[in-house]
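COURSE: Structural Biology Practicum
ASSIGNMENT: Worksheet 4, Part C
STUDENT ID: 0417
INSTRUCTIONS: Below are two proteins. For each, the amino acid sequence is given first, followed by its structure token string. Answer the questions at the end about the second protein only.

PROTEIN I
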Amino acid sequence: MASGTETICYGLTDFHELWAVPIELAIATWLLERQLGLAFLGPAGVAFISTTGILLMAKHIGKAQKIWIQGIQTRVNVTASTLASIKDVKMLGFTDTISGIVQTL
């Protein structure tokens, strides 16, 4: 499976979280407020700050993930072409050289 397709499939497995999490958050906040009173603002504040931090980091994830997937694709392409010509590589004695090149990718 291509790495791009794999990323999309993993992203869709948690797609239902978009509608479920707000409902869970509302119920959890209400229950916490019933048990703790105004003290529920402490944990709610920590959750808010954490969520804000995650959203700020998420802006940079797309660029990093693109670089990561390009690296994976390069390694897959080099490995596939090496395996396609493995007989030639072995006959010419380039096994160690090609192995080193693939491992440094």
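PROTEIN II
(use this one for the questions)
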Amino acid sequence: MKKWKKLLRAGSITEVKYPEWLANPVVVKKKNGKWRVCVDFTDLNKACPKDSFPLPHIDRLVEATAGNELLSFMDAFSGYNQIFMHPDDREKTAFITDRGTYCYKVMPSASTISEQNVRGPAR
């Protein structure tokens, strides 16, 4: 599948042998009618600790900018792919395809822990 080849070329995933954790890819229909290939990390998400610090409300964020002379905005495009996983945790994101078994070297976008790590620094 094109998605896996692209991730492999970009260095976002790597081949793995005999992982303890193994997830399956799933195909999900998007609102525009096209299809998206994802990895189902349901079991991994259940095993991960939950973040007890949710994002603040938008009104508090806006209030915090009052009185400042300079504001900065960042676009987190491909934010998950910019955070490298600790080598000890990579195999926990293993998934199987018709071409082999791979794991993520960067945070996968469909895991609970990824969302917490991407939002965390923004607090």
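ANSWER KEY EXCERPT:
Q1: The CA atoms of residues 39 and 88 lie 20 Å apart.
Q2: The beta strands are 13-15, 24-29, 35-40, 95-97, 100-104.
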